[in-house]
Amino acid sequence: MSTCFRFISLFVVSCLCTSVFCQRNSAIYTVVAPSKLRPDIVYHVSITVHDAPSPVDFNVQIFGTNEDRIPVSVSKDLHLDPKLNLKSAFQLFDWNLVTILGNNWTRGITVRNSTKLTFEHKSYSVFIQTDRPVYKPGQLVQFRVIVVNPYLQPRSSQFPIDLLVKDGHGNSIREWKEVYTTNGVASVDFILADRPVLGDWAVHVNVEGQKFHKNFSVAEFIMPTYEVHIDLPTYTTYNNSDVEATITAMYSYGKAVKGEVTLTVAPRTRYNKLNVRPYESFQTKVRIDGSVTVYLNLLKDLSLRTDFFKREIEFFALVEEEETGHKYNTTNTMWIYDKGIKIDLIRTSETFKPGLKYTAFV
């Protein structure tokens, strides 16, 4: 029975790989290769022959044109035994590769099949670093560009790069043409205007037609954020319900916050299906300069009644900064008990044995 091959389909296989299937009767061959190519990267082509009655000879060719439109190609002759897989490597250079082509001769029959490939002209990696993520109007912007090859080696300083800075509206602000790197690094700086366009700016880098960019922000001055804390005793009792609540407000860099704090204290409601009277709450507003201590008597100020059960008390502090009016808040809780004695049962054994003494520790 003679064997020949017929083109069936193109499909994507893991990591954007392109495969070509051809068959007649029960004979099938498969060509699997990446659909994207990059210069100076080894390109692998895998060929498998299924149910062929005899060995198959393939000629695999990759061809295209370079930047000067000059035809270039590389090819290999492969000999495959039936039911075996053969993987071949091609060393590719800076070519504009577009197709992959395979030939097969079996018992005098020749088959030509090809598929389109995508060439990605990325032969360098570019890292753009700025000295800060956010800038204020009038500040100095410093950034550097690091260019390395696929082996992470610095790019040759003989070839310049182009740099461009665009504002938040996409307008070109500064441009540096033919900047030469030193050991793959180019450092540049410029000063922002007093009233620049606010928003996301971008540094654009052009390396032999390959383009890269990195964003940074230009924004008005914003006061640093601050944190609010409430320091409370761990517990108190009904017969001694005097409490000191210390509210602290500090900037992230350690400076005290000046303004006003509103402290609200109220019992947390217990779960109950019956409607109960609303609890009283206590609220006071005082000046704060970094920290302030508020004194209160829970039993009196919250109109609490002595109870056998513990009750949770919630403290809510809202601090308003005097210069900007920015507000931050925090919450903390403490418990009030019937007595200042806590009894714990120390677990010694989880089982009881009939007729034996059991010892418990309190």
UniProtKB/TrEMBL annotation:
<feature type="domain" description="Macroglobulin">
    <location>
        <begin position="220"/>
        <end position="297"/>
    </location>
</feature>
<dbReference type="InterPro" id="IPR050473">
    <property type="entry name" value="A2M/Complement_sys"/>
</dbReference>
<keyword id="KW-0882">Thioester bond</keyword>
<feature type="domain" description="Macroglobulin">
    <location>
        <begin position="126"/>
        <end position="218"/>
    </location>
</feature>
<comment type="subunit">
    <text>Heterodimer of a TEP1-N chain and an TEP1-C chain non-covalently linked. Forms a complex composed of TEP1-N and TEP1-C heterodimer, LRIM1 and APL1C; the interaction stabilizes TEP1-N and TEP1-C heterodimer, prevents its binding to tissues while circulating in the hemolymph and protects the thioester bond from hydrolysis. Mature TEP1 and to a lesser extent full-length TEP1 interact with SPCLIP1; the interaction is induced by microbial infection.</text>
</comment>
<feature type="signal peptide">
    <location>
        <begin position="1"/>
        <end position="22"/>
    </location>
</feature>
<comment type="function">
    <text>Binds covalently through a thioester bond to the pathogen surface resulting in pathogen clearance.</text>
</comment>
<dbReference type="InterPro" id="IPR002890">
    <property type="entry name" value="MG2"/>
</dbReference>
<dbReference type="InterPro" id="IPR041555">
    <property type="entry name" value="MG3"/>
</dbReference>
<keyword id="KW-0325">Glycoprotein</keyword>
<dbReference type="Pfam" id="PF17791">
    <property type="entry name" value="MG3"/>
</dbReference>
<protein>
    <recommendedName>
        <fullName>TEP1-F</fullName>
    </recommendedName>
</protein>
<dbReference type="GO" id="GO:0004866">
    <property type="term" value="F:endopeptidase inhibitor activity"/>
</dbReference>
<keyword id="KW-0732">Signal</keyword>
<dbReference type="Pfam" id="PF01835">
    <property type="entry name" value="MG2"/>
</dbReference>
